[in-house]
Each structure stands twice: as C-alpha cells, then as structure tokens.
Protein 1
Amino acid sequence: MTRFDFIILGAGAFGLATAAELRLSGHRVAVVAPKGGAASAVAAGMIAPAFETAIDGLSVEQANILKAGRILWADFATRTGVHLQHMPAEWRGEGADRLAIALERNEFEYSYMPDHQWIVTEEDAKLDPAAALEVLSEGVERIDALARSVAFKDGVWTVDYGTGTASAPQMVISTGAAAAIEGMPETVKNLIGKIVPIRGQIGITHERFSDHVIRGPGAYIAPVNAGPYEGGSVVGATMEEGVRELATDAALCERMMNAAWALLGHEPVEIEMEWRAGIRGASPDGMPMAGPVGDGLHVALAPRRNGWLLAPLVAGQVVAGIEGLTLPEPALDPLRFNPSH
C-alpha cells in the first residue's frame, strides 16, 4: 500500500485541476483513473461564460458563477502552465436576437449586427483539452487504473485498484457520470444517483476552418492549436441527455457537420474527420457539486458542459472544504441536494 496526502478518483478537468491546486500547495497527490477515459478530453475546451449563459438561458445567479470561473482562469493558467487562448467568439444566424437579450441582461460585453444575425464577444476564451490535461497531471502520481472499491477506517481512505492499493486521510470523488464505486457512503451514492448522463459528440480534423470560435444553430467550430491535430479544427457538439453509449452516431455527426458547413457559408464537401463521444454528467439544477461530504471525503462532480470553464472555481471550492473554510460558492455545495442539509 502506498500512502499519500490526497487521493483523487477521476482524471478529468475537475479532478486534475484539484490535483494541481493541492500539488502546488506541496501535497503528495495520487490520481486514480483509467488512462485516456476522461470526457474532458472529448471537448473543444471552451472557457465561454458569455455564450454558455446566453445559449442555456441561465439565471443571473448562475451566470455570475460562470463569470467567477472565467475570472479565476488568468491566475490559474499562470500558476499551472495551462495555455489559455484569448480569441473572439461569434454567433452567426438564427437566434441572435434572443442571445443578445441574454447577454445584455447578464452584463456581458458584445457587438451585435441584427441585420446580419451576428454577435461577437471578447469575453470568452478556450484551451486545448489534451494539452491542458497533460499539464495538470505534472507533479502528481498517476495510477492508470479503475478504482474497484474504497474503504474508510481509522480516519484513512483506502482505494483498491486491482493491482494494488493507495491510501490517504482525504479523498476527492471526481468520476464524472460513472456509477458509484463499492464502499462509497450512502451520501455520495445518493449524489451520484442524481447525476444525469449527457453524451457529447465532436469531430476533429486537420482542416483549419477559422482562427476563432464560431457558433450557430446546430454546431460550433473552434481552432485546434496543440497536439496531433494542431492547425486543425474541432466541430461540436451534441447534448444527448440520458445517453451513455460511447459509440458515435453517424446520422447525428453528419447533421452537425452540415450545420458547420452552413455556418461557414460553404457547400458540404468530403473531408477526413475523426468523430469522438464523451459522457458528461449534470446535476438537477445544472450546476456542479463541489465540496466536502464528511469523513475527509469531497466531491467535484456534474460539470454538464462547463467542466473546463469551472475547473479552477471547483478546485478552489474543494480546497476550501479541505481546509475547513467557508465555501466560496455556496450554490455549488453538494449537500444542497441532501434533504436533511
């Protein structure tokens, strides 16, 4: 058995951002997760409070949480070495009038040309997920295995991952939309049971369509600036509630690609595209669950589609709970779903 200061189950944006914060504070951190399985890798890496707020019709209170997450990114990127890419984001086409009203209501800065159904904002940004996950993994112990069970005894959590065990006095559950692991307390099982899976499908290509983010009805297009597809583009993304199937749906992908061609004002042509699917999780109110749940156990769950945007905020929330401080965002307290809380 190997002893750590903290064990984190899950290697997505929430889990690795939390691991990075703890590592930067001098702690020995282990991250237990199957290699390459995080839904955060199947993403465009949007840091987009303005358009995510407008598209989803979020309340002012929810919009403020997304804004807070965006504000934290500058410092977080500097401290961790994640490359945050500042670029304009635009909306083209139907729905622009509704989005403009939402942006105005939530006090985002934007430009709007109603005659052309066109909106642009400088408040959003992006990153390249694969590169960010790699950077956030630096300095932490990666155990590339699936946690089979957990146990709590004498103030210590022990994780059995098949070929060995690891232990720590505190543990963070950041397992996305996965089922509860054997040995988790009922409080955590109940929270995980409230998470709704949402499949997201994206396509990635070596073709460069734009040097900034373009959104519109049925699709978005974003540049890829790192990794094997550097210089290419990503096209996304579906939001299929209740679907856990990781195989991609050819018909949905074709529909999304046609929507992307329409945004570009280009007739559809055959290009080489790699389609991917990831399963995200959403809480009943659409906001993450982040904070302590008792006995040295903490959760960082349910990002919906804002995992990258909210990663620094969720990590800070978890660290505050670990340190016994008041949670910075009470609206993300996981115990808000506990009737006795």
Protein 2
Amino acid sequence: MKRRTRLAGGVAVLAVAFVGMWEGLRLTAYRDVVGVPTICYGETHGVQMGDKYGRADCDAILLTSLMKHEAGMRRCLRDPDSIPEKSYVAFVSLTYNIGVNAFCRSTARKRLDAGDLRGACDAATWFRKAGGRTIRGLINRRMAEHDLCLEGVG
C-alpha cells in the first residue's frame, strides 16, 4: 500500500523549516513580486489585502499547504516513496513554490520517473523566473534546493 504523505515527524520539521526560511514570514498581507496578495509563508489562496495572522496560524497553514502540494506532487510521480528524504523535501519545496501543475509538467518530474535523481535535481534549478523576470531570490532558493536534493546522494 502506498503512503499518502511523507510529511510527518522529522520530514515535516525539515520541510517547514526549509520552505519557511525561503518564503519568509509576514503576518500581514502584502503584494509579492508579481503583485499577488500574499501572507504568512507565501500563501496566496484566498488572501485579501489587510488580512492578518499570528505565527502559530501561519505555521499551521504552511504545513497544511505543504501537504496539499505534496499530495499533488505524489499523484504525478511513478514511485514517490523511492525518492531519498532530503531530495523529497527539495521537490516538495519546489512544488510549493511553482505549483503542482508546473511540477507535474516539468523535466524534473520526468527525470524522477526515469530514475535520474541527479538530472531531476539539476532540472529543478531552471525555475528562476516570476512575472517573466529572473529573480535573484529564486536563483538562490533553487541552488539551496539543489544542494539539499543532492545531499547524501552518491
């Protein structure tokens, strides 16, 4: 029987800490680099300018959202449970940032399904743009995800 999630225990802690570090925490709604109302750790769904949340609420929202993105990621992968733990967290982070549909159509996903983990980690670095512009923060995030993705991989 296939697992539905790997975001429990230490994996959840790593995912929340990693994604939270890159997204940053903002307790009041703001407009992101492309003008979308955003709050907490990069949440955009249903956000209205003027919204406010506490840190505990944001932490819970992030974990719930990560699990939602993880579920979408898992649906389009042939064997998600074969991905090493840190690589798995890197791909959840990517999926959270670019969306399930973009991940499922990506070369990274295709390479994962072909058993090419290193190639998948490399392909994940290609997502560096927002609003048609290359963003330094996305370059930095993709490099950190790449490092995490390959950590402990031979």
Protein 3
Amino acid sequence: MELQWIDDFLALCQTRNFTRAAEARCTTQSAYSRRVQRLEEWLGASLFDRESRPVRLTPAGEEFLTRARRLREEIFDARRAVLSASSHFRKSLRIYTTNTLAASFLSPWLVETRLENYSLIVASIAGCLEAVRRKHADMGLIPHFADESLLGVTAQEIGRDRLILAASPRQKRPVVLEQNKLLGPVMVYTPGTTYGAQIAAMLDRHRIQIQESPVCESASAEALLAQVKAGLGAAWIPEILLRDSGLKRCAAPDFFDIAYKILLLKPPKQSAGGE
C-alpha cells in the first residue's frame, strides 16, 4: 500500500473520470490507471465500475472510501504527533487545532481566554477529534460542518466562518459559472481533505463541474491563498484568511459559500463512578 495510491483513489472518487483524475494527479492516464489497478490488486477487489459514465464506485469501493480518507489523515497526524512527543517543553496544556485556525483565529482567542503554558499541535480535523476523544489533548479547536459526527467529545461553538471562492484582481482570466460549468483557472484541495470533500459535495448537489484541469492542488488553505494572491487562479478560501488580503469573492451563486462553525472541543467528563 502506498500513500500515492490513496490519493489516486480519492481523486477518481471526486472527478468520476479517469482523464480528469489523471490530469489532477499530474500524470498520464495510462500511468494513473496502472496505479489504480495496483491498489485494487492489493485490496483484492474492484473499486470502480469502469463501464458506467461517469465512473461509479462498486460496493467494495464505497466501503474503502471512508477508510481511505481516515487512513490518509492518520498517516500525516501520526507524523505530527511523533514530532510533538519529542518536544523538550514541559507541557501543562495540550491544544490541538488545524493549520488554518492556528494561523488566524487561535491567537486572538488565546489572548481573550488568557491561557498560558500550552503546547500547540497542528493536525487535521479528524486528528484533532481523535486526540480529544482519546484524551491525548486537553482541548481542540476545529472547523465543523453540519454533516460531521462529534461523538465522544464535548463541543462549544466559539466562532463562525465560511469557505468563499475568491480571486485576485490581478487574475487575467475570471472564473465564471456558465450552464453548470465552472470556467477559468481554479485551484482545489487535495482529495480526502475535509474542505475538498465539502466543496465536491456542494458542486455535486448542484450538478456543477469544474471544466478545466486544476491549476494547483494542495491540502493547505494557506498554500492555496498564496497562489490566489499571485493571481494564478481562484480557490475556496476560509473567510478568516481573506481579511486585508485584497482578494475578492468571485461572481457566483450564494450556495457557493460553505458555512461552518468553529468549535472548542474537550474530552467528555468521567462519571462519578469513573465510567
């Protein structure tokens, strides 16, 4: 099993088209198809119905989809956790949060709440949730979308934000929606990321396709923001990162904005009996 295979699988789940998935993964269709086949051989089952248009997941593919997203996140979160454990800092409070919130929302919130002597660990949304559930974290701050489960944690809303399709005034070619096709240079999140899944679900609900191959693909909103500022394309960026950026919301329907809450997570309190 290779991480590359998981990203290939998620790309095809998102595009439902081998040609577009290969372009998104910056490879040829033949090389891409071989990698998908290797994954299927390793798992011992066909993941896609190649006869359907668009390509559909088989029952085995549907089963692997949720696990693939979790596997990808856990691999990267494992690395972050190991690096954190090697710290020389004597920790009194362990805070898990995402990179976006660490770079924007967290600092003013820490000033307001007057927390001191803490260790800050940056992880994926799933990684933050898991750390709080397992009591590896004293608290977590995450963006939360309405369709996501919060079982096993205590959650408090401490803010709100939204993903906005934004572009720079310097961008030469605008991004426009014409007859359910999004035209122009667009940048996307890596398959398997929460932001990417939410955007893909919104586009699928309204039967909208990104017509051209993505200009850039990244798991990082901050990385995409830098590309948008350079005028290289448009991307869905958290509004909290757009302040004072000089970027503008693209002309698009209101449903293109994807709202979410910012939650403070804490481990559930034990009962008096310790259960």
Protein 4
Amino acid sequence: MIKIVVGSKNPVKISAAQTAIRDALSLKEVECIGINAPSSVAEQPMTSEETKLGAVNRIQYCQQHTRADFYVAIEGGVDQFEYGPATFAFVAIANQKNVSIGRSCNLPLPPIIYQALKSGEELGDVMDRLFNTDNVKQKQGAIGLLTHGLATRESVYRQAIILAMAPFIHPDLYTG
C-alpha cells in the first residue's frame, strides 16, 4: 500500500487525490491523509502565476514535514484571460525524486462573481452567498453550481491529478 499526503484538509481535495492516484497506478487501496499546508499566497489567488506558486508552496511544505510515497497539492485560482475571467486549479504532485505540475480546465466566471473576487472576497464565499449554500468549497464547488452538477470540483481535480500523474505512470518516457 502506498501513502499519499495531500496539502489540505479539504475532503474534496483528499478524495480526488485518493481516487485519481489509486486509479492511475491501478491499485486496490491507498492510504491518503490531508494536512494543513500553507500556500503562502492570497486566500483567493488572482493570477495563474500566484495560483501555481500556491500549489508548489504546499507541495514543498508536505515534503519537508511528512513522509509519503506521493504528495499532492491543489490550489484553486482565478485569472482574467482574453476571453474573460475564469477559475481553475494548479496541481503539484511529487514523490521522492520528481515533481509534476498540472492544471485543470477553466470555468468561465460571470462578471458579478469576478467583480466580487476583485474586491477581495473568496470564490467559495461568493458562491455560498449567490446560491444560498453553505461551505460549497468542501462540496461541489462553484463548478458544480455553475454546471448544474454536470462537473464538480472533485471531478475536475481528479482529472487534473490523473493528467499530472503521466510522468509517474511512464517515468521512462519523461527522463532525459
């Protein structure tokens, strides 16, 4: 059995890491725990660069403070693109030797939500207020609310983790 440490106590992130790595490595079981790993970026990262840095900072913290076979960090963020504002996540995965950085797909954000984020609010709080939900960031997330559940925060994180696992699935192709 392998041990996975996730740089968050958020059950959505832990579950996504557990199922994605288990499936990517064709394992029956994995041990997966979450720890509070600081991102050292804003609560609501507002650029791609800041979001990626948050994931990298979390993975480094996990490596320095725990022992595991794999470390996973997920940092959600927002940016203004040429086609409008969107939210996404960066994923960092590491073992003892290698680090892989991946990114989720983008979810376009309505202008009213993006303006609230620019004013200093966090996405989960804005979504809870607009949709009258409670702690949606530990459930389906903005993704689930804006897609009527066709995609969820966990499904998007799971996909991003599986893609970022490619260098660990085929290490011979990624060395050199």
